[in-house]
Design goal:
about 220 residues; alpha/beta; Dihydrofolate Reductase, subunit A; two-stranded antiparallel sheet; 4 helices; about 20% helix; about 25% strand; binds NADP nicotinamide-adenine-dinucleotide phosphate
Length: about 220
């Protein structure tokens, strides 16, 4: 049975994430791990340049300190809106996403702290549900969003059925045990891959997001 999509009309949600051969998206303790090849990084930057917003969770900002811009081979830098989900408002001052060179929106339920370099959307915890956040983003005029992680945020999007396209790059690398896993299945599921191709440094897959619902 087809599962209906509940993303606001006119908003496209794409997930892109990289995992190691042994199933980790980060190294031990959440440390950043180099999983993508150079060719794959180029693909990710092209993908970033094609969307209105790039969304990540607070732990990704804390552990990776990404700047969430699209750096193209031509040298051009494209700056989609950066969207951070940070209920407790724990990302540190000085994080690269707060550099003010791109618009940054932080969704939080902490009303007590100020954060320079971002527009805070401080709402009641009930309004931090992912459908409510997407409604707000759609209302701000965003039409396409790339969700880059981490595992907590991606599993929220999967279980809320909010994903249109799901890209998973599996890098040709095994990293030390103890990192964060994208998939922690309680049950066995099969036939999740819609398309797969071997690329430089790994395999790029497109998954059926609806087949993962309630499973990760
Ligand atoms: N390999 C890759 O492609 C890739 C990409 C990105 C990240 N990563 C890795 O992923 C790791 C982090 O993953 P993670 O699962 O620990 O954390 P995460 O998903 O980056 O962030 C989780 C945090 O986001 C906040 N959050 C989630 N949903 C929210 C919502 N609806 N509203 C408000 N806040 C919300 C929560 O904050 P509260 O705790 O305050 O509720 C939660 O603790 C990093 O170590 C990074 O290296 C890997």
């Amino acid at each position: 049975m087809a599962i209906s999509r509940i993303v606001p009309e006119g908003l496209e949600v794409t997930v892109n994430v990289a995992q190691s051969l042994n199933g980790y998206i980060s190294g031990p303790g959440g440390r950043t791990a180099m999983i993508s090849s150079l060719q794959d990084q180029e693909r990710v930057h092209r993908l970033r340049s094609s969307v209105d917003g790039i969304l990540v969770g607070a732990n990704t900002v804390i552990n990776d300190d990404p700047d969430l811009t699209a750096r193209l081979p031509s040298g051009e830098i494209v700056r989609p809106t950066r969207i951070i989900l940070d209920a407790a408002l724990k990302i540190p001052d000085g994080s690269r996403v707060l550099d003010t060179r791109s618009r940054t929106i932080v969704f939080t339920s902490n009303h007590s702290r100020k954060l320079n370099g971002a527009e805070l959307v401080a709402v009641h915890p009930d309004e931090l549900s992912l459908p409510a956040i997407l409604e707000r983003l759609s209302g701000m005029g965003l039409k396409s969003i790339l969700v880059e992680g981490g595992a907590n945020v991606i599993s929220g999007f999967v279980s809320s059925r909010l994903i249109d396209r799901f890209y998973l790059f599996i890098g040709n690398v095994i990293i030390p045990e103890g990192g964060i896993r994208l998939f922690s299945m309680e049950v066995e599921i099969r036939d999740v891959v819609r398309e797969a191709r071997v690329v430089d440094g790994g395999v790029l897959m497109e998954l059926y997001p609806e087949k993962l619902v309630n499973k990760i």
